[in-house]
Design a protein that fits this description.
The complex is a heterotrimer of chains A (324), B (449) and C (401). Helix content of chain B is 24%, strand content 22%. Chain B contains nine helices and 19 strands. Chain C has one domain: Thiamin diphosphate (ThDP)-binding fold, Pyr/PP domains (Rossmann fold). Classes of the chains: A alpha/beta (324), B alpha+beta (449), C alpha/beta (401).
């Protein structure tokens, strides 16, 4: 087992899948010779050639559209958005062509759309997006947002092997900051299953991506004060692992949801509704959320810090909830 | 001036009632004591008379709704006659118009505080709602705990999961003294006895539980019949009684030949003179009274480590109903003569079947009698009706060959079974009591007419 | 390129066009009888374009029709019942009632991709199909249609650009039917000939009389074979006219009557009938037979559709995801080793042939111009300023072709 970064784990997944299955191709801007803006696809062109690692024009609509066509012809394309923020440019293709294809006329679209997302890197309003909820809201798309290197590799493999369109968000803050030992042999992580990162009994903190680590940090702070938080990593945003969420709420009876996405329309609202519907009588307190502000992502560091959640903000909310 | 109409307490163990029917509409006139509404409780269905004359101004609790006792269910606008001053709205609703409906005696109020929780959260002393949470309310309901009696350690005094779990574990309301109302319902009962180790001195709360996983009951063809309120409460009471009182049984038989003969001889005249059928029950009651006089321990209740010896003898008489079971009480039975007893027996049984019992007629028994023999069978082993410490079961009176003076005679015999609470009634007392009863029956010499 | 049709093929062209027209007439009747669910679109007057282009494809080729290409669907092997049931929202429709009109397809056998309502999106999708086909070693061509209005979309541009950059074997048929809903083409597109758009992508184009089915066919055949040979994408502009409104609800009163008369005289089916008669490719008896056959067929197909059930309500909840209902299989027509290491390995470096600057020609200082491309081509005739003899610059210029 080797220690690999989050980014390297993703690259390994692409590498191994392309090795394993000749129908897997990669297309996007600067993915070939340059190896990708973040070097996620470094080395792939060299190994698999011009036909399988395609440098496209700056045309998100065409990238996604071509990926659909390739899917119809029997390939498994992986389309990259150079920054996930640019997924807005192909919103029509994704929500109208891709998402509705199997439902409408029984044509599955086995493609993956992946790209670097999230903030905390002084990227400003157009390089820090968390657009997951537009697509969680669209029936027909699966949405994955891992937080560990192990999960990133396993989930990307599952996504590529899935017959359905999968959006795979890679939090750029984690790219090189987290390292983990991962197995050398082929493994996958199932889509649609959350993972309990830390067991606890006083409250449940549900989170994903970079905020999962923030939540763990907060849980450590709380532990010193005698509050033991259970921390759950969603990993997949659609389909949500309802059973895991409800089981944890039934165990601790208090719920705090943390996400870097903006507050209104973030997945915390959806989770709160589900918990109220199905486990109302297991709640010993209100459902709280710690999220980013309802603003575009600001650029200057003190502004971005104010915008984003952090361990202190999470711990404060958790304390409030624990004391309720 | 407005007079509150309240949900009465129909028995010691009754803490809520369901309004089944309003007999008057708002705006209609009602006389004092005229039936105003009908209720259903766990032990009795009853017509409740109006506390004063006037016009029914407002109905606060509608048909089908269940509310705790003492809840104001309606308001009567009296026609100017001064009645007792209406209770201040902020205090827990006191019994209104004292001179009319007998108010539930304050002595029972401490017991009422530990009620199985109604659907709505119990009101606090100062009228503020108890703060808890859905989880806490569910657990309280499942375990029959009154949230009003708990101290909350959550934010702002909220009852938290920790608090309810602790309460469940200790088996009752925690720290009741701290939350008792200061006025109006001051208990006249002595302070709770010091808890013996492991015995908190609180009431046992029973949740109806299954001995096997529920799904094992559902197989083949079946029909599910939800219990009505009375049946639920009977079920809970039986469970509680068995759990609290260690039941021991003493069986004896009495020669009823003499009484049978007296009855045969006098019943026609009795009926003509008093317009009342002559049954066996008054005989048995009289005999019990003698026994109870001689052995007052059998006429008591148990409060933790205190024995409450009752001075009156109030005989509870179990009456089987189509829809359940009820135990109306003949108060001060020791002061009634034979005729008075028979009258009470007949009257209570009839009114029980017609749902016309008054609230105070189903509480404050000190000893109970049940007659399973009337349905056949030699004898029964009844469950003690709490908070009594004994209950006498009567078998069928039937002719049997017995040995008298070394010869076989045919006599009318009856098996008597005493179920008694061995916490305070020992075998010696029980058997001696039974012997007294038997002797009284076998040597009846009172003129019944 | 020698493109000729047999007599049988000639008759087939007639059959498909006539079937197309009569089917649509029948649907209009059904619409007026309230038997059609939703809207109804007509391709009256454009049958030659649909049929002629699709007829040039082989079985293995892919196509993605638009709303006015029912003729192409029929050529590719769909039946009138498929069209009827789709419009009547029946359970026997290709989409089971999940979507209507021409929003259906068939990946495995007929290789037809369903359109969506947003225009232009089929262009990049079919470019992707073409790229994938080439990757798998299949010698396929992907074809789709787009209207004059649809070429205004970003998706059209991005798709064409990608197809051209990738030299994908892709034929785009631009059906210039003069109207995009109520907007005449001159307000939609600042070009007289939409084929000129091809210049923007550096690809070849054709302009063809869209109402002459033989011309359409031969042009398309030539284009398809050039594509197949690897020449890159080709754009065909078929000039035709939308003879009815945008849809049933649109009476198209904004179309000048003279324009309608002009194109009525050029009706594709009437023209072709005359052609067949002139060329003695048929006789009245054959015509009658074909017409009768069409009528019978349509009658049967309509009955089938009308007797078909509506879908069960539970169907609404099903099918959002593929949970094992399909197996994705690629048809490889080349050795897989070619695309796997070690054969697939390359040196990840660019070979740049032209460095893209402004070339200085001996003896002449180039005037500041716009539109001068780096490979030395003559600047187009719209120079902004000419070298002044008198020191004055001549500023204005006109663009005329």
């Amino acid at each position: 087992m080797a220690q690999v970064t989050f980014l390297e784990a993703i690259r390994q997944a692409l590498f191994e899948e392309m090795e394993r299955d000749p129908t897997v191709v990669l297309l996007g801007e600067d993915v070939g010779v340059y190896g990708g803006a973040f070097k996620v696809s470094a080395g792939l062109l060299e190994r698999f050639g011009w036909e399988r690692v395609i440098d496209t024009p700056i045309s998100e609509t065409a990238i996604i559209g071509a990926a659909v066509g390739m899917s119809y012809a029997g390939l498994r394309p992986v389309a990259e958005m150079q920054f996930i923020d640019f997924i807005a440019c192909c919103f029509n293709q994704l929500t109208n062509f891709v998402a509705k294809s199997h439902y409408r006329w029984g044509a599955p679209v086995p493609m993956v759309v992946r790209g670097p997302s999230g903030g905390g890197v002084h990227g400003g309003p157009f390089h820090s997006a968390n657009p997951e909820m537009y697509f969680v809201h669209t029936p027909g798309l699966k949405v994955i947002y891992p937080s560990t290197a192990y999960d990133a590799k396993g989930l990307l493999k599952s996504a590529i092997r899935d017959n359905n369109p999968v959006l795979f968000f890679e939090h750029k803050f984690l790219y090189r900051r987290i390292k983990e030992e991962i197995p050398a042999e082929d493994y996958t992580v199932p889509i649609g299953k959350a993972a309990v990162r830390r067991e606890g009994r006083d409250l449940t903190i549900i989170s994903y991506a970079a905020m999962m680590h923030t939540s763990l940090e907060a849980a450590n702070l709380l532990s010193k004060e005698g509050i033991e938080a259970e921390v759950m990593d969603l990993r997949t945003l659609y389909p949500l692992d309802r059973e895991a969420i409800l089981a944890s709420v039934r165990k601790t009876n208090k719920l705090l949801v943390v996400h870097e996405d903006t507050r209104t329309g973030g997945i915390a609202g959806e989770i709160a509704a589900i918990v109220c519907e199905e486990a109302f009588e297991d709640l010993d307190g209100p459902i709280l959320r710690v999220t980013s502000l309802d603003t575009p992502v600001p650029y200057s560091p003190p502004l971005e810090e104010r915008f984003l959640p952090n361990a202190e903000k999470v711990a404060a909310a958790a304390r409030e909830l624990a004391r309720f | 001036m407005p007079v509150d109409v309240i949900m009465p307490q129909m028995g010691e163990s009754i803490f809520e009632g369901t309004i089944t029917k309003w007999l008057k509409k708002p705006g209609e006139r009602v006389e004092r004591d005229e039936p105003l509404f009908e209720i259903s409780t766990d032990k009795v269905d009853a017509e409740i008379p109006a506390p004063s004359a006037g016009v029914l101004k407002e109905i606060k609790v509608g048909e089908g709704q269940t509310v705790p006792i003492q809840t104001v269910v309606g308001v009567i606008d009296t026609d100017g006659k001064t009645s007792a001053p209406a209770p201040a709205k902020t205090e827990p609703p006191k019994p209104a118009a004292v001179e009319t409906t007998p108010a539930p005696p304050p002595a029972s109020s401490r017991a009422t505080a530990q009620a199985p929780v109604a659907a709505t959260p119990a009101a606090r002393v100062d009228g503020e709602k108890v703060r808890s949470s859905p989880l806490v309310r569910r657990l309280a309901k499942e375990h029959g705990i009154d949230l009003a009696q708990l101290c909350g350690s959550g934010a702002g005094g909220r009852i938290s999961k920790k608090d309810i779990l602790a309460a469940i574990e200790t088996g009752g309301a925690a720290a009741p003294a701290a939350t008792l109302p200061a006025t109006g319902r001051a208990p006249t009962a002595p302070a709770a006895p010091a808890a013996a180790s492991g015995v908190p001195g609180g009431q046992v709360h029973i949740a109806l539980e299954s001995a096997v996983p529920r799904q094992r009951m559902y197989f083949g063809h079946y029909e599910v019949q939800p219990m009505n309120v009375m049946r639920q409460r009977i079920a809970e009471h039986m469970l509680a009684s068995k759990r609290v009182s260690p039941h021991v049984y003493s069986i004896d038989e009495a020669d009823m030949t003499r009484i049978v003969e007296i009855r045969e001889r006098t019943k026609a005249e009795f009926e003509k003179r008093h317009e009342l059928k002559l049954t066996f029950m008054p005989f048995f009651i009289r005999a019990c009274i003698e026994g109870l006089r001689a052995f007052p321990m059998v006429n008591s209740s148990v409060d933790g480590t205190n024995v409450v010896l009752h001075k009156e003898i109030n005989i509870g008489m179990a009456v089987a109903l189509d829809w359940g079971l009820i135990v109306p009480v003949i108060k001060n039975a020791e002061e009634k003569n034979f005729l008075g007893l028979q009258r009470s027996v007949t009257d209570l049984a009839e009114r029980a079947r017609n749902k016309k019992l008054k609230p105070d007629e189903v509480q404050e028994s000190t000893f109970s009698i049940t007659n399973p023999g009337v349905f056949g069978g030699l004898m029964g082993l009844p469950v003690i009706s709490q908070p009594n410490v004994a209950i006498l079961g009567l078998g069928t009176i039937q002719k049997r060959p017995v040995v008298i003076n070394d010869a076989i005679a045919i006599r009318s015999m009856v098996y008597l079974t005493l179920s008694y609470d061995h916490r305070v009634v020992d075998g010696a007392i029980a058997h001696q009591f039974m012997h007294k009863v038997k002797t009284a029956l076998e040597n009846w010499n009172e003129n019944v007419l | 390129m020698n493109v000729s049709l047999t007599r049988q093929q000639h008759l087939e062209l007639y059959y498909y066009m006539k079937l197309n027209r009569m089917l649509e007439e029948q649907m209009e009747r059904l619409f007026r009888q309230n038997k059609i669910v939703g809207g109804l679109y007509s391709s009256l007057g454009q049958e030659a374009t649909s049929v002629g282009t699709a007829y040039a494809l082989e079985l293995r080729d892919w196509m993605a029709p638009m709303i006015r290409n029912i003729g192409a669907l029929l050529v590719k092997g769909f039946k009138p019942r498929d069209i009827f049931t789709q419009h009547m929202a029946r359970y026997t429709a290709p989409t089971l009632g999940k979507d209507g009109t021409s929003h259906f397809g068939d990946l495995k056998e007929r290789h037809v991709v369903s359109p969506i309502s947003m225009l232009g999106d089929l262009i990049p999708v079919m470019a992707g199909v073409a790229m994938a086909g080439r990757y798998l070693g299949q010698k396929i061509v992907a074809m789709t249609w787009i209207g004059d209005g649809g070429t205004s979309t970003g998706a059209f541009h991005e798709g064409m650009n990608l197809a051209a950059a990738q030299r994908a074997p892709f034929v785009c048929v631009v059906e210039n039917n003069q109207w995009a809903y109520s907007t005449p083409v001159r307000f939609q597109v600042p070009l007289r000939d939409l084929a000129d758009r091809a210049k923007a992508y550096g690809i070849s184009s054709y302009i063809v009389d869209g109402n002459d089915v033989v011309a359409v066919y031969t042009t398309s055949k030539e284009a398809v074979e050039r594509c197949r040979a690897g020449e890159g994408p080709i754009l065909i502009e078929a000039k035709t006219m939308r003879m009815k409104g945008h849809a049933q609800h649109d009476p198209a009163e904004y179309v000048p009557q003279e324009m309608v008369e002009y194109w009525k005289a050029r009706d594709p089916i009437i023209r072709y009938e005359q052609y067949l008669t002139e060329k003695k490719l048929w006789d009245p008896k054959t015509k009658a037979e074909i017409d009768a056959r069409i009528e019978r067929e349509l009658q049967e197909e309509q009955e089938f559709a009308e007797n078909s059930p509506l879908p069960p309500p539970e169907l609404a909840e099903q099918g959002v995801f593929c949970e094992g209902c399909h197996t994705i299989e690629a048809q490889w027509e080349r050795p897989i080793e070619e695309v796997m290491p070690p054969k697939s390995s390359v040196r990840p470096e660019w070979t740049v042939k032209n460095f893209g600057g402004i070339e200085v020609v001996e003896g002449r200082t180039p005037a500041p111009t716009v539109g001068l491309s780096g490979d030395g081509r003559k600047p187009p005739a719209r120079a902004v300023g000419k070298k002044a003899k008198s020191g004055k610059t001549v500023g204005r210029s006109k663009v005329r072709r």
